[in-house]
Design brief:
The chain has helices at about 10-40, 40-60, 65, 75-80, 80-85, 100-105, 115-125, 145-150, 175-180, 185-190, 205-210, 220-225, 270-280, 300-305, 325-335, 345-360, 380-385, 410-415, 435-445, 450-460; strands at about 90-95, 130-135, 140-145, 150-155, 160, 165, 215-220, 230-235, 240-245, 250, 290, 310, 380, 400. By secondary structure, the protein is an alpha+beta fold. Strands 1-5 form a two-stranded parallel ribbon. It starts with 7 loop residues before the first helix and ends with a helix.
Length: about 475
């Protein structure tokens, strides 16, 4: 009788298959446990972006307790017609609407003079940054989110109505006028009275200040120092305007990855600092915020008196702190709008302008490619910039931040905004267009640029 032996190769393969079959469930379990233990960057990033997007668009941090319960803003919002809302710069997300409604808007079949339509838009979460709570068909509460100021739409359906663009500042939004419409401004009056110079003000005074801001501007420092107006706007030793509103242009919340300081004036901190500050002290959400620099009563009389640098709530009631990580991640993931060659800028002129940017114009000494700001402590004094220090002196760093230049073409061309609000450069919008800005630098720093060189440099700026 002849014995047959299995080949060594066959036996080895059988052992491997048997071992795999037996060990597979345990191996998979161990791998999953190990993944949770060590973390997975890709999965974590996806979760943070999803969470951050939701927070950025829809989270009020419980600020209804201020805007609704104290100021009664829901009364003003609920009485707005769609036409009024659009005139105030509020934007409508067309993707939150049904195709039938979009078709009706395009066909002019929606009554833009009916406040009931505004309420319908709020019920559908279609008004960017405005969250309404309804009970029995009536608007009971209104709160605001990051998207109110830092998102707009592409106007693809109608002016002010289109696809949402997160992170791009709303240059049409009249924040001051919206706040001024609140029935009861007494809480704001009492806060501003904490500054010695404001001890005698009333609600009418506050409304005048709020209405002086205009579209696309906000004055966060007003509620820290009580200074409503810049007495002298100075550029290169020349007074260009007096008693200018202290409000600054709403900054973009996109194209910020890799930067240090993020606001117009220096020393405040990074994106996550500003998120916490705005959520707690500007939106008046329910959360914790700490900054002992606000204890300086000379620089921040209101903040020091109201202890705005020492806001603390029970961790179980805090609606801000747990959301800062995801919100921060989402904002840093938002890329700047990309210019289109031949549409948004002239490629040949931009190529010549690029040589000037790094050479004769010396722009690259501060605006380093590809961050378009400085790696590190990106701020400069008012004296170095040869402008007034009104806004700089309101910040902890008493300086101006080197701003990111990416996406300048959006403002220069007036994309996604009303024509009258296009342009406006520098923190307070003192330069109406890029040519004015370049002219100013040419004079302040004796660059010796010819008219043709200025045009080329502008095309390069528009290409960033």
């Amino acid at each position: 009788m002849k014995l047959r032996y299995a080949s060594p190769l066959f036996l080895a393969a059988a052992v491997v298959l048997l071992t795999t079959a037996v060990a597979s469930p345990r191996a998979k379990h161990d791998a999953a446990t190990e993944s949770r233990f060590l973390g997975d960057a890709e999965e974590n990033a996806k979760q943070l972006i999803d969470q951050g997007r939701k927070i950025f668009r829809f989270d009020t941090y419980g600020d209804e307790a201020f805007w609704t319960d104290k100021l009664g803003i829901q009364q003003a919002v609920g009485s707005l017609t769609p036409r009024d809302a659009l005139a105030l710069g509020l934007k409508v997300d067309a993707e939150a609407l049904s195709p039938r409604i979009v078709e009706a808007i395009n066909g002019g079949k929606v009554n833009l003079d009916d406040p009931a339509v505004t309420l319908q838009l709020l019920e559908q979460n279609a008004v960017l940054g405005v969250v309404g709570s309804f009970e029995g068909g009536s608007l009971r509460k209104v709160g605001f989110t990051c998207a109110l100021c830092h998102s707009t739409v592409d106007d693809s359906v109608a002016p002010g109505i289109g696809k949402r663009i997160d992170g791009l500042a709303n240059r049409d939004l009249n924040v001051g006028a919206i706040i001024a419409a609140a029935p009861d401004l007494q809480p704001v009056v009492e806060l501003l009275r904490l500054a010695p110079q404001n001890s005698g003000i009333g609600a009418d005074d506050v409304r005048k200040v709020l209405e002086s801001w205009g579209p696309g501007k906000f004055d966060a420092e007003l509620f820290l120092d009580g200074k409503a107006f810049n007495p002298k706007q100075v550029t290169n030793g020349v007074v260009t305007a007096t008693n200018v509103s202290g409000a600054v242009l709403i900054p973009n919340a996109q194209g910020l990855s890799g930067h240090n300081l993020h606001t117009w004036t220096g020393g405040w901190g990074t994106v996550t600092y500003w998120n916490a500050f705005v959520a707690v002290n500007e939106l008046h959400g329910i959360g914790t915020f700490f900054d002992e620099r606000f204890d300086d009563a000379n620089q921040f009389p209101i903040a020091a008196a109201a202890k705005l640098g020492h806001v603390s709530v029970d961790p179980d009631e805090d609606q801000v702190t747990s959301k800062l990580a995801a919100l921060h991640f989402y904002q840093l993931a938002l890329p700047a709008v990309q210019p289109r060659p031949g549409t948004d800028f002239d490629p040949a002129a931009a190529a010549r302008g690029g040589e000037l940017f790094s050479g004769k114009a010396n722009c690259n000494s501060c605006h380093h490619k590809p961050l378009w700001t400085e790696p590190g402590w990106n701020q400069h004094s008012a004296d170095e910039l040869k402008i007034d220090g009104f806004e700089a002196d309101r910040a902890p760093g008493r300086a101006y931040r080197t701003m990111n230049l990416a996406g300048l073409f959006v403002r220069e061309r007036g994309l996604f905004m009303s024509p009258q609000n296009k342009g406006r450069f520098y923190h307070d919008g003192r330069f109406k267009e890029l040519l004015e800005l370049v002219d100013s630098y040419n004079e302040r720093f004796h660059l010796g640029l010819s008219d043709d060189e200025k045009k080329d440099l502008i095309e390069y700026l528009k290409s960033l």
